[in-house]
Fold this sequence. Notes:
Belongs to the FPP/GGPP synthase family. Helices cover 71% and strands 1% of the residues. The protein is mainly α.
Amino acid sequence: xxxxxxxxxxxxxxxxxxxxxxxxxxxxxxxxxxxxxxxxxxxxxxxxxxxxxxxxxxxxxxxxxxxxxxxxxxxxxxxxxxxxxxxxxxxxxxxxxxxxxxxxxxxxxxxxxxxxxxxxxxxxxxxxxxxxxxxxxxxxxxxxxxxxxxxxxxxxxxxxxxxxxxxxxxxxxxxxxxxxxxxxxxxxxxxxxxxxxxxxxxxxxxxxxxxxxxxxxxxxxxxxxxxxxxxxxxxxxxxxxxxxxxxxxxxxxxxxxxxxxxxxxxxxxxxxxxxxxxxxxxxxxxxxxxxxxxxxxxxxxxxxxxxx
Length: 308
């Protein structure tokens, strides 16, 4: 077992402490997303930072760093990638909230970006976050990540965030609102809108630590099952969740007549599917042959048992 992994095992904080530690670590770096020497319009900077620093547990960066550490890698080497995936995720939320998309007024208990800065600035801030994410990934080369690994991460991010990934899932979601008749259509949406960035986060973090192709494949399967379980849990929470904890209105899917897993198969069957997918994810993780997979296992259990 690599020396760094031994250190993690002997000095392991509890999961909640670890999550907060990572959120703070990544959040501090995200404040510096635009180098101070760059000349950038003030309104654009403020709009980008408004959504980027709006809170949350930094779940996707958490997966990046936990995957890197599971292979004995360092947080420092994986940090640029962790920041990049949070920028991609944030851009997607800014655009999803727009009137032409989900038309939401609040995100994490705060007014959505376009409600504060206007639609045009929200669109441009999202564009800026996405393109800045690619620049940020390349910064990993400056902290010891081999150039070929950085190139692979850039290629993966283009795929998982693009038309074959998250954007394609969003389009399928919009089209599905016109009438969805098969659960396979909903699964496609959840896999691409949510699970693809989970897979990217895990494999990108692993690449910074020198993962083998076999390990990357196992982590993709872990991320796919975990991401789908996570999104089904979101569907469940929209039905039974606490608005104060969620930071948004519940029953919004029902009011919008949006098709979800509980709509298709009912609440109990949806909960059972979350459990099945979680066990499948943990089985894939066991096959990854990581130096230390305990933290990723803890994260998987936490995500599907969460109440917000």
